[in-house]
Amino acid sequence: MKSILLTFFALAVISLAGIFTAQAQEKRTGYNKSQPEQASFVSTTVVINEVYGGAGCGTAGCSTYQNDFIELRNIGTTLVNIGGWSVQYAAATGTAWQITAIPAGTVLRPGDRYLIAESFGANGVNPLPTPNVTGTIAMSATAAKIALVNNSTALTGACPFPNASIIDFVGYGTTAACNGSGVNNTATNAPAPSTTTSDQRNGAGADTDVDSTDFAALAPTPQAALLPTAASATLQGRVITSDGSGISKANVVLIDSAGVSRTVLTSSFGYFTFEELPTGQTYTISVQKKLYQFNPATRAITLNEDLTDFEFRAEP
Known about the structure:
By secondary structure, the chain is mainly β. The chain has two helices and 21 strands. A hairpin with a 5-residue loop joins strand 16 (about 250-255) and strand 17. The longest helix has 28 residues, at about 1-30.
């Protein structure tokens, strides 16, 4: 009996030692298995493409541009409505976030840039190209944090993660307390730019959340939207037989002026809808359904406002 009790006591001591060792390890590393694993913040649609904070320097001709700026880019293959979103800025280790809101109805086509002018500096050499929107944030030339957020609610904290509202995030310079990976790891910050260089996303703009490799400090290249962003509209219509009955599961294809296509199937009553279409453009719309002939089967329309009575009628 004594040997059994001794064995039990020894096992208990070993178990407690393991618990204390694990707790000590968690305390040293900051890891706790009860904490959720950090989610990925990779964006496959709209990203922060370029940042420049050099406009506030103090001598004539000391900066390349007269405004700080943030440039967004749609790297995806579909239209993205960014109306109501915001770009937010905080100092490298700061917790107060300044906001520039993006107007309602702003739509980015695939490939579009969106130029946000920030604080003006009279000592800059060049004016920006006409920006898409203008804010007043005075950005640091060398180290700070910028977030693209899908609302206009101010972020909180020096490293405001986890936060499902953050679409993209960049920490630049050696002292930024947070970067695109959502953690405090200054080794993976984007490089420090200057009054004559900006941080620019590499290549086709792919986002890996490793800012140190996603960005390079180069001569600034601000660009506004390739085409003017506009308020969006909705195109609704119906595909019907010669006697006015709805045709279900007809294939309706909409192609914009840049050749980007969208496809929908009609409902059981023949209705179809395309939403968030930039206005002021000419679209080509066509219909196809086995056993039915349409004349014409393809039509062009310039969309300036919502259209709700577009119709394709099959031949008798």
